[in-house]
Design a protein that fits this description.
The chain is mostly helical. Helices cover about 55% and strands about 0% of the residues. The protein is built from 7 helices and no strands. α1 packs across α5, α4 packs antiparallel against α5 and α5 packs across α7. It is globular.
């Protein structure tokens, strides 16, 4: 039921299948240049498959993995053009991360204002405020744990 982002993160990939943002292969031991990019912005970390992998491992230890899965699901949601697919994806995000019965509920303000009626008329930025809260959580968490991926 998870979207492509969740599926992409969940499967194991050999190091030869992991690439840096510039398309060059990355080893399982991220080089110093790659990790230096992560230090310049959280977005760089979240755009790098190895960075996501290590960040996700860290969040598992912090019992917060659902936050990165939600953030990635929202990023995929923004790219959807087809209205029917957008409705399905919005409902999936809501049921997986935001509803009171969500299997991987994220703790964000405003999730209670979302309901299934709103999901009938989705727009690409409908989850943006909630996603921004999760990104803020990432910043706070990484500031307290600067070397989580080393």
């Amino acid at each position: 039921m998870f979207n492509r982002a969740v599926s992409r993160l969940s499967r194991k990939r050999p190091p030869s299948d992991i690439h840096d943002g510039d398309g060059t292969p990355s080893s399982s031991h991220q080089n110093v240049k790659g990790t230096a990019k992560w230090a310049t912005s959280l977005e760089n970390l979240l755009e790098d498959p190895e960075g996501i992998k290590r960040f996700r491992e860290f969040l598992k230890k912090e019992f917060s993995e659902e936050n990165v899965l939600f953030w990635l699901a929202c990023e995929d949601f923004k790219k959807i053009q087809d209205k029917k697919q957008m409705q399905e994806k919005a409902k999936d995000i809501y049921m997986t991360f935001l509803s009171s019965k969500a299997s991987s509920q994220v703790n964000v303000e405003g999730q209670s204002r979302l309901n299934e009626k709103i999901l009938e008329e989705p727009h690409p930025l409908m989850f943006q405020k909630l996603q921004d809260q999760v990104l803020g959580f990432f910043f706070q968490l990484t500031l307290k744990n600067v070397c989580f991926f080393i």
